[in-house]
């Protein structure tokens, strides 16, 4: 089936950028060399519904080195980098992704990718798996398993599994410690600020930034915003996370209390309607609202549109909503992922670990999928530990080893006071 991309002429630019990222992804390259020698994915068909970025390109080239046949769709209408899509298509992959897709085009691309009848699915948000379960359950019999990259997708898949409706096993790559502790915290923290600054040239120093959510992504964003000189308020519903934020030195309050104080609001919860009409009514003139959670539902955009007397695009990725009382509220990147819509997404150094987990999990599924139950699995601990060890080695860091005496002590009960 013919590729659906923006412009094949962009391929050369994309290849240069992919190569630059590759130099900063040593763990994935180590796995790529191993796969090229062993070909563990020979004949395995993979549908990847991921953000089409330079880092993703290096994951996919690792899988093809192992023998996999790949079809790619974007996992967000605004996150596809068109030069990367062109480069992947020129390298022989089936690519159905372009920046600026509407909803119909987005799902058309996913369905085109599914025409290869995959053995393994890779998701960032679970839209491929949802499409299979909703529209293409006939494909499930051939599928050995899947991988899910992000918190939002894992939430959806666990709900599907709890309902007894999950049609094949899925590994929650998001929950690997070498993914969420680094990608979610350091990647989201840095790339979200990058996207906001690209879209607005916002000065963080001295401003009040409200962070909705204090999971790993919220922790990273709050810490980085404070490092830029912002006064940070955290809004959280889970008491233990709220307590942690308070102990970390942040002000913690409800969104209603924070709404009149914030200059910038960023949601990173994985939930719906975190910022609602009653909050917008309290915001100051020229407050900026952005989202770095996976879907564009964290901000109640329909309510914002209903409240506005007029909407205009004042610059790229910035929509101005004029309120009846004259206040102006600015929404960034249509409420979609600001770090990918207005920036490059996570740096390759952290995606190196995330996608190493993906690459090793695909092999695990190919070898073990038929023996797994239809549920959501954690990344096997041996994979998570191997990724950490490879990353340390790439960084030139040598760690301590247990002595025989220490190992015995940790595995015995006899020694006391």
Automatic annotation (TrEMBL):
Domain called S-adenosyl-L-homocysteine hydrolase NAD binding: residue spans: 184-345
EC number(s) on record? Answer: 3.13.1.9
Q: What InterPro entries does its record include?
A: Adenosylhomocyst_ase-like_sf, Adenosylhomocysteinase-like, Ado_hCys_hydrolase_NAD-bd, NAD(P)-bd_dom_sf, S-Ado-L-homoCys_hydrolase_CS
GO function term, MF aspect, one = trialkylsulfonium hydrolase activity
Q: Name one GO biological process term.
A: S-adenosylmethionine cycle
Listed binding positions for NAD(+) are: 150-152, 184, 213-220, 236, 271, 292-294, 339, 346
Function as written in the Swiss-Prot or TrEMBL entry? Catalyzes the hydrolysis of S-inosyl-L-homocysteine (SIH) to L-homocysteine (Hcy) and inosine. Likely functions in a S-adenosyl-L-methionine (SAM) recycling pathway from S-adenosyl-L-homocysteine (SAH) produced from SAM-dependent methylation reactions. Can also catalyze the reverse reaction in vitro, i.e. the synthesis of SIH from Hcy and inosine.
Q: This protein is called what?
A: S-inosyl-L-homocysteine hydrolase
Which source organism? Methanothrix harundinacea (strain 6Ac)
């Amino acid at each position: 089936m013919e590729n659906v991309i923006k412009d094949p002429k962009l391929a050369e630019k994309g290849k240069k950028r992919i190569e630059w990222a590759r130099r900063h992804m040593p763990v994935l390259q180590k796995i790529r060399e191993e796969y090229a020698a062993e070909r563990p994915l020979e004949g395995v068909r993979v549908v990847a519904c991921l953000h089409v970025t330079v880092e993703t390109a290096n994951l996919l080239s690792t899988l093809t080195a192992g023998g996999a046949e790949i079809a790619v769709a974007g996992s967000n209408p605004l996150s596809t980098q068109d030069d990367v899509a062109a480069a992947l298509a020129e390298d022989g992959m089936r690519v159905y992704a372009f920046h600026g897709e509407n909803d119909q085009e987005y799902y058309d691309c996913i369905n085109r990718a599914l025409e290869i009848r995959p053995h393994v699915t890779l998701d960032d948000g679970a839209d491929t798996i949802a499409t299979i379960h909703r529209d293409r359950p006939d494909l499930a019999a051939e599928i050995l398993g899947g991988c899910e990259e992000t918190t939002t997708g894992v939430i959806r898949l666990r709900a599907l599994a709890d309902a007894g409706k999950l049609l094949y096993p899925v590994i929650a790559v998001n929950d690997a410690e070498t993914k969420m502790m680094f990608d979610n915290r350091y990647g989201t923290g840095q790339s979200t600020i990058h996207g906001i600054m690209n879209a607005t040239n916002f000065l963080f120093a001295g401003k009040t930034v409200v962070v909705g959510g204090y999971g790993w992504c919220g922790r990273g964003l709050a810490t980085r915003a404070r490092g830029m000189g912002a006064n940070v308020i955290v809004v959280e519903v889970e008491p233990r996370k709220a307590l942690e934020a308070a102990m970390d030195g942040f002000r913690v309050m409800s969104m209603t209390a924070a709404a009149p104080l914030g200059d910038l609001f960023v949601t990173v919860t994985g939930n719906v309607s975190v910022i609602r009409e009653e909050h917008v009514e309290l915001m100051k003139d020229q407050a900026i609202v952005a989202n770095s959670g996976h879907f564009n539902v964290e901000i109640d955009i329909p309510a914002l549109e209903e409240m506005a007397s007029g909407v205009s695009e004042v610059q790229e990725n910035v929509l101005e909503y004029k309120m009846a009382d004259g206040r102006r509220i600015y929404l960034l990147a249509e409420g979609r992922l600001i770090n990918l819509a207005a920036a490059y997404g996570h740096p390759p150094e952290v995606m190196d670990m995330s996608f190493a987990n993906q690459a090793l999990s695909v092999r695990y599924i190919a070898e073990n999928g038929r023996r797994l139950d239809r549920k959501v699995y954690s990344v096997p601990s041996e994979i998570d530990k191997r990724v950490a060890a490879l990353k340390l080695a790439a960084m030139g860091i040598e760690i301590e080893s247990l002595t025989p005496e220490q190992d015995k002590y940790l595995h015995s009960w006899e020694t006391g006071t």
